[in-house]
Amino acid sequence: MKHKWTGNLSLKLLSLVVAFLIWLLVVNTDNPVQSKLFQVEIQLMNEDSVTEIDKVFDVVSDMTVVLKVTERRRVINSLSRDDFTVIADMENLNEMDSVPLTVTCSNSAVTWDEIEVSPPSMKVRLEQRKQSEFVVNISQGGEPADGYEVGNTEVVQGKTVLIAGPESTINRINQVMADIKVNNISSDQRLTAPLRIIDKDGVDFTAAQMSRLQIKDSDGVLLSENAVMVDVSLWKVKNSVPLEVEVTGTPADGYRFAGITMVPSAVNLAGTDRALAVLGDNLILKEAISVEGATEDFTQDFDLTELLEGIEEIRLAKDSSPSVTVSVKIEKTGDHTIMLPLSNLGIVNRPENMSLTFSPADEIAVIIRADNESDIIQLSDVKGSIDLAVCAEPGTYEIPVQIELPEGYELVSDVKLVVTAAEQPQENKTEDAGE
Question: Which DSSP string do the residues of 126-147 spell out, in sequence order?
Fold first, then answer.
């Protein structure tokens, strides 16, 4: 028996080595060792151990590290960055102002010697603690329900906050924003608004930077979750409020005031119910228009900004322009302006294969003088026609309009119409031919 176990011992040992090598080859082929990188955020511990009442530390390096993990493929494929915890224990702060990092993995198959940390430590800097006061600006997101606009917004805790932290960080603060969402609200609300800090380069503070700060209200009370409460008051929108302006003075001898046109003639306003009720049904421009001594038409521009600033709890609705242009019409005594609709014109020689665009598109002004100043001509007494033969070729043409008037009246000036002619698209021509 002893001979059977010890016989050919060298051959048996060789066979065992060969078998092991074959097993190792199979394992490395089927489940090889690989490396994979994971980016993980650093967690701080025992922060109070390195700060004094007037001192604080600021993290100089990045708050994330890269972990290189070397393991079998099957283990590597099962890992995610959430399986790793990177701790910077501030009690381990050394004379080089760095804190060694320790890494643990929730997967027991991964040991510490299989993890390479880059960088292996976190750099910090001890600084003077600083506290400064900042105005809270409110940033609105979304739109209220139809017919409403945000009127007033007010931070319940006050207009300012106190922020304490590392001096270098406090000095980088440019703005403090309170973000509110007003999507589809239709009544006054008190909303929770998280604070957002913007640095002097216009970049938002990161979560890590925010965590290094103490944010308090103006009374010094620490804010919960770095948020304030904002009261939002909604104003109703009143559409198409007519504009009016007072006209004073007398034109020069032989002339008369013939009316005004306003662009826009109405505006949309937003305000409280009380303020809109006090305003009434129209908005009167602050300044009057003087036609004293006028001998010709003129325009005058107005800005509603100053007018509305003097009215409490009312403003222009969103996207409304404050600019108003008033056009004043001055006519010679005995002159009359008739607005002749284009539909009243007789059309002669209109080309069939051309698309025509008219300007003006609705009506043209016909200025008429009567032999007897007391006579007033009616629209039905004015006949007009236009010959469009020239529009047979593409182009823009200023074409005279032939006006026929009753006896005792004459045209003060020629009447013209601008017509742009363009060839119709081929498909339109085909459809017309089929018809």
Answer: EEEEEEEEEEEEEEEES--STT
Find, among 318, 316, 329, the residue nearest to 266 by Cα: 316
Element (H, E) at 168: helix 167-171
Query: In the prediction, which pLDDT does 435 show?
Result: 42
Query: For residues 415 and 367, what is the distance between their CA atoms, to the nearest angstrom?
Result: 9
DSSP string, 340-377: EEGGGEEEES--TTEEEEEESSSEEEEEEEESSTT---
d(CA 21, CA 400): 105
CA distances from 168 to 37, 134, 177, 405 (A): 33, 16, 20, 84
| 3-state SS assignment for residue 212 | coil
For 399, the enclosing helix (H) or strand (E) is strand 395-400
Q: Give the global pTM.
A: 0.63
CB distance 350 to 388 below 8 Å? yes
Q: Cα–Cα distance between 230 and 153 in angstroms, integer?
A: 7
Q: For residue 373, what pLDDT is reported? A: 66
129/131 Cα distance (integer angstroms):
7
Residues in the chain with pLDDT values less than 50:
429-435
Nearest-angstrom CA–CA distance, 381 and 368: 11
Are residues 194 and 226 in contact, defined by beta-carbon separation less than 8 angstroms? yes
CA-to-CA distance for 291 and 276, rounded, in angstroms?
32
| CA–CA distances in Å: residue 338 to residues 62, 368, 413 | 77, 8, 13
The answer to whether the beta carbons of residues 122 and 88 sit under 8 Å apart is yes
Distance CA 254, CA 31 (A): 106
CA angle 196, 198, 202 (to 5 degrees): 140
**The predicted structure's pLDDT at residue 396:** 93
